[in-house]
Design a protein that fits this description.
The complex is a heterodimer of chains A (366) and B (119).
Chain A: E1 2-5, E2 11-14, E3 17-22, H1 27-30, H2 38-44, H3 80-90, E4 94-98, H4 111-128, E5 136-141, H5 147-157, E6 163-169, H6 183-192, E7 196-199, H7 218-239, H8 242-245, E8 251-254, H9 260-275, H10 286-290, E9 294-296, H11 306-315, E10 322-323, H12 336-340, H13 346-360
Helix pairs in contact in A: 5-6
Chain B: E1 4-9, E2 18-23, E3 26-33, E4 36-41, E5 56-61, E6 71-80, E7 87-89, E8 108-111, E9 114-118
Antiparallel strand pairs in B: 1-9, 2-3, 3-4, 5-6, 6-7, 8-9
Chain lengths: 366, 119
Amino acid sequence: MITIKAADGQTESIRVVDVDIHLHEQPKLMAKYCDLPWRKSLELMEEEVGRYNDIPGFSTGPRLDPPFPGGAAARKVMTAMQMREELDALGVDIGIIFPDHLLTLALLPNRDYAAAVARAYNAWLLEEWLCDNNNLKGALVAASQDPVDAARQIESYGKERNIVAVYLPCAGVRPLYGDRWYDPLYDAAQRAGLPVVLHSVAVVHPVFPLNLHELDTAIARHTLAHPFTLIANLVSLITSGVPVRFPNLKISFAEAGIAWVPFIMWRLDREYTEQRRQTPVLQDKPSSYIRKFFFATQPIEEPDDSRDLVKVMETFGGEDSVMFASDWPHHDFDHPRKVAQLPLSPAIKKKIMGENAARLFNLDGR
Amino acid sequence: MAVEHVVAQVTDIPEGQSRIVKIGEREIGIFNVRGQFYALPNICFHQGGPLCAGRISGTLTARAENNWKFEWTHEGEIVTCPWHALEYNITTGQCLAFPNRRVRSYPVRVADGQITVTL
């Protein structure tokens, strides 16, 4: 809970749902949940301290830059209890868990291995992190390399009370998420009523749009990696008609802030006015579908005048579709008060800090 | 009214190290930079992070006189907020990223082996 100023000037405690938090998965601990022969691979993987998201054969780190002394230390959350304590300190009531290493799952070239790793993660997550009394919820990891297997995972776990979403890894995904390759996955998610969450990470990879080796600093690459991947996938989803073909599929985007949304929404609308016949599946302008998508706040933009951000949110109906995310414990996490302090009415603050997420992820109805 | 508080013994904080102390409700970081003591508030302007709990190091800077090449400077004078890595010069409270952002630097006095901070 956090405290905000209510309409009558009194203070009011409101529920905080955090739609993007990260556990640190260790391959060795997941190994017993993994099918053979891939279990043998996970058993062999030693995690080296300091090599964050950088385990050969498991996760591909973006480490291209020279290290220097000082700077901020990488935080990791190793247990459900640690997560619960740290969320309590932030004022977060309910958190939806995503992985660390498997942010780069889509980069694994071996299809069967990638699917086995996703299955092992999902089983381990459910068994060792989610229980009915810790208010930790989970997103199933979908291996984009094998959408049919991902669909089976959704069918197996879709009714689990603490599984509330399907995570679609965006970094290096190929083809982009609008491709019909993913139809079985969307069909399963729609039938299970589980929202999909598109979430990226900053890596350098030949796959569009992550060929960021053109840029010689981490600040440049990290600035572009997240919005580029989400924009590319959103455009792919819209132009291939996913929201039309799967009208009850709930679609959300995490970890690129929110200011990119009006840009791509307006640009797509403009393109649509002259190129509709390129995408005859659409029954209305792109923004009519984008307005039904949900967007996580982190890393929230910090303009000099915070009213500018409120205006940005209003352009796409964000009052009903923006959801607080901290990204805890990552280096660019947001404290809930950063979002709760925006110049919004108490009613809209409640929506953004928890009610919109509760609706999307059906947190109170499961 | 300004009040002096004894916060630590000189021997408690070796060169290059720091300690966070509480004075009333306020958390203050005490730093020993090459034998000189400095005191900064343990709260970052950005999102309220515990900036004094960060790592102490030098940092990278660049200037026109050296053709904008990267240089390693301010050795031991920089603390980096553990939340979002904003850097502060311990000796001045100046935030490196923003010329117009500075945290307070509390007056520190050393006498009889004791460090005192005036709030």
